[in-house]
Amino acid sequence: xxxxxxxxxxxVKVSQxxxxxxxxxxxxxxxxxxxLAAALRYLNQRYTIPDKVIGLLTDIGTEEFAHxxxxxxxxxxxxxxxxxxxxxxxxxxxxxxxxxxxxHYHDASGxxxxxxxxxxxxxxxxxLYEDIAAExxxxxxxxxxxxxxxxxxxxxxxxFLREREIVHSLRxxxxxxxxxxxxxxxxxx
Amino acid sequence: xxxxxxxxxxxxYVSPFDPxxxxxxxxxxxxxxxxxxxxxxxxPQFSPQEALCAGTLWPALYDPYYSPYKKHERQDDQ
Lengths: 189, 78
Hints:
The complex is a heterodimer of chains A (about 190) and B (about 80).
Chain A (H helix, E strand, L loop, with lengths): L18 H7 L1 H4 L4 H11 L5 H29 L4 H6 L3 H7 L24 H25 L3 H29 L9
Chain B lengths: L6 E4 L15 E4 L18 H7 L17 H6 L1
Antiparallel strand pairs in B: 1-2
């Protein structure tokens, strides 16, 4: 059961009409390390993870949907007033041919999202290590997107999303420490 | 942790036969959470308003990314 708040987690402002940036941003929408993959990965793994860290996966998985919504808003704003000609010039001609301006779950190269991107191994350590890796990969993707984007308002929102990847990664690392059950114990070697 | 920077640098090998002008210095990010493993209790906190903008409640985890290819960007933003 979820409760929906009809607002974005962080404001999304777009200062320039730039459909090509939308083409790159879609990587975080339907790409292998995108927000959809993250949300579905965590909200699925949580059924077979020890009780102590179920809540963490629920909370982070839920937040990923809030991030997905921010990315969707960016893509929508960047493309909504683009002409078919502008879409073509931005490299979005093949997208336009299939989807018009509609969003779809695919990566920056148009490869559709697949469950093969995510894993649920049933082994808590294996799953949490995958989650840490996923957060670091998403963080890196945000870095490269900021490198390529000249839109200061978009970059501000992307910087926020990258910061959340950092926090999530740390929380997953803490979950591993909790499951190791050595936290706060005196260490003898 | 004096002189700490979340961006590390290295100098890759430059071949005399490289087709493009060489980038003599390359960099990569090492954000603060890598050094924490388990966040200690009682770290200083942002105000709620600041935290909502920063994306974290703790200055120790705050590490905004600015492109190393766009030197002007960080100054423009602050």
